[in-house]
Design goal:
2 domains, nine-stranded antiparallel β-sheet, four-stranded antiparallel β-sheet
Length: 284
């Protein structure tokens, strides 16, 4: 009964207003108050600052600077095998598997549309029908930069406005089409071995913004309309393990691969680290 109440209340909360206010607070330089917020957060979520490039919390001028902190150079080794796909983020491997034509597993007994997730363009989604996907959920305690699972040349990025429901397991098992409802940024890449792949960064309650290394802050969009950024004619290529983007507060990353191109390794519900092996390339 309590869990049902926690889910249902999200329909009535002013999620966008709460999230934008949280974003303003997180980006403000508030001196000792910022330090207090960071200290409280570290204690509450047991954040390991030994991994951080900057360990002294007083050096973070804003909460966002702390939240999107860089790690030490060797904190996350990137899988070196040429046929290995790297984990894009720290978090929990909440779901993975085959895409059933256009249907993807959100949580046990709950599915959502591949086409809707990728912005509603049939040409974009057709490439991945009957393909493979992996979903990584980032909790507030995790490292919040998103990295490349494979080498890729950027072809297109799409911002899709949407709702800002929480994306934790409780919500995922109770709200249909959650990841296709929420605000998100979709990056489409080409890889020399498997062809195309996509990385989707999904927003959520209190996720103040989503940024990429090539476009800066993408979400929230002032116009609140779907926006397509085309990069086909530009030579933006990112190596496996390179930073792709970051969340200002936690959320979810979904990687989508073509049919018969990769085999996912891992255990659903297991804690994962960026750079570990997510999958093996099986295409010949």
């Amino acid at each position: 009964m309590l869990n049902k109440l926690k889910v249902n209340i999200q329909y009535f909360l002013p999620k966008t207003l709460i999230t934008r206010l949280a974003g303003k607070l997180a980006s403000a330089k508030l001196g000792k108050f910022t330090t207090f917020l960071i200290t409280t957060f570290i204690k509450h979520y047991n954040v390991d600052m030994n991994e951080a490039e900057v360990k002294n919390i007083k050096e973070y001028e804003t909460f966002n600077a702390f939240f999107t902190r860089a790690l030490q150079k060797n904190a996350r080794p990137i899988t070196k095998a040429s046929n290995a796909v790297a984990m894009p983020a720290d978090g929990v491997l909440s779901e993975y598997g085959e895409i059933y034509k256009d249907a993807m597993v959100q949580a046990k007994g709950h599915y959502y549309s591949l086409n809707a997730l990728l912005g509603g363009n049939e040409k974009d989604s057709k490439v991945y029908e009957s393909g493979t996907f992996a979903t990584v959920y980032l909790s507030p305690a995790n490292y919040h930069r998103v990295h490349m699972p494979l080498d890729g040349k950027l072809e297109k990025m799409v911002f899709v406005p949407g709702d800002l429901f929480s994306v934790n397991l409780l919500t995922a098992t109770n709200i249909d089409n959650l990841f296709a409802k929420n605000e998100r940024v979709i990056c489409f890449f080409k890889n020399k071995t498997i062809g195309e792949f996509a990385v989707v960064m999904v927003g959520a309650t209190i996720v103040a913004s989503i940024a990429t290394v090539f476009a800066g802050t993408v979400a929230p969009s002032g116009g609140r309309e779907k926006n397509i950024y085309r990069y086909e004619k530009e030579n933006i290529t990112l190596k496996k393990g390179a930073e792709l983007g970051r969340f200002m507060l936690g959320s979810t990353v979904i990687c989508v691969f073509p049919k018969n191109s990769v085999t996912i390794n891992g255990k659903k519900g297991s804690a994962v680290k960026m750079g570990e092996t997510l999958a093996e390339i099986t295409i010949k």
